[in-house]
Amino acid sequence: MSFSLESFSLKGKTALVTGARTGIGQAISVGLAAAGAHLLLLGHRDNLDETKAKIDQLGGTHETILLDLSEVSSIREKLVPVLEKYDIDILVNNAGVIHREPAMEFSESEWLRVMDVNINSVFILSQEIGKTMVQRGSGKIINIASLLSFQGGMFVPAYTASKHAVAGLTKALANEWAGNGVQVNAIAPGYIETNNTEAIRQDEHRNQAILDRIPADRWGEADDLAGTAVFLASKAADYVNGHVLVVDGGWMGR
Length: 254
Ligand code: NAP
Description:
Structural class: alpha/beta
Order of helices and strands: EHEHEHEHEHEHHHE
Enzyme class: oxidoreductase
CATH topology: Rossmann fold
Keywords: Oxidoreductase
CATH class: Alpha Beta
Number of strands: 7
Number of domains: 1
Distance between the termini: 38 Å
Bound molecules: NADP nicotinamide-adenine-dinucleotide phosphate
Strand order of the largest sheet: 3-2-1-4-5-6-7
CATH superfamily: NAD(P)-binding Rossmann-like Domain
Shape: globular
GO molecular function: 2-dehydro-3-deoxy-D-gluconate 5-dehydrogenase activity
Helix content: 40-55%
InterPro entries: 2-deoxy-D-gluc_3_DH, NAD(P)-bd_dom_sf, Sc_DH/Rdtase_CS, SDR_fam
Family: Belongs to the short-chain dehydrogenases/reductases (SDR) family.
């Protein structure tokens, strides 16, 4: 195969992105649409207008699906029947929640909610959509991991455990499905300006300490993740399997 820029095109592909309303999920949705994909935007509540408007501006196409991913059983009961009419080529497991509390006080209900959204739903969605990809002999799954897939963090034990699990699951699924033409990879964003990091950006001391460690000398923007997602979703990444690609302005190398 000779290489051409067409290898990055997503024309004719259908992509499902979870958590598409805001932040990284929005930026990745718009990026995939810019590369030509038809977007299935999975939202929690019916307010994805901003994401839809950005895709419309590009002349892209989209549909919306609403589901609360913390109700993991509803993925098989409600979502899978809706998805039957689509051939999903690209699945981006982006939706995620964070709960900050010292481990000694961390409530069981918060532990379970974080695990349900950040890892349990990722497994069930990947399993259900991965089956159809394996049957068709092609597909890309991109999981959104974190620097806390490698490090421990402070006061976010459930988040850290869930994101370590996301990295592990990425490799486990990649090993099983690479031979069937399905690539499973992850993106580990660094510190990105989104709702997820609002609280630590408001804390002047934490904000400065974080900035001091980022060689790029700035927080990341959600758009910094879009190109990486397009690459991993494209034919250009057909031989990339089980990789957790860090996009962090250099944080991990410091
Ligand atoms: P965000 O703006 O808070 O986005 C989180 C998204 O997940 C929202 O669209 C949210 O929908 C959705 N979501 C939350 N609970 C859900 C549920 N029960 N069912 C369905 N959707 C749900 O923050 P973000 O930074 O873009 O986060 C996106 C991903 O990046 C997460 O997995 C996060 O862990 C990861 N990440 C972020 C950073 C960072 O620095 N920002 C770093 C590493 C990894 P609603 O808004 O409608 O609730």
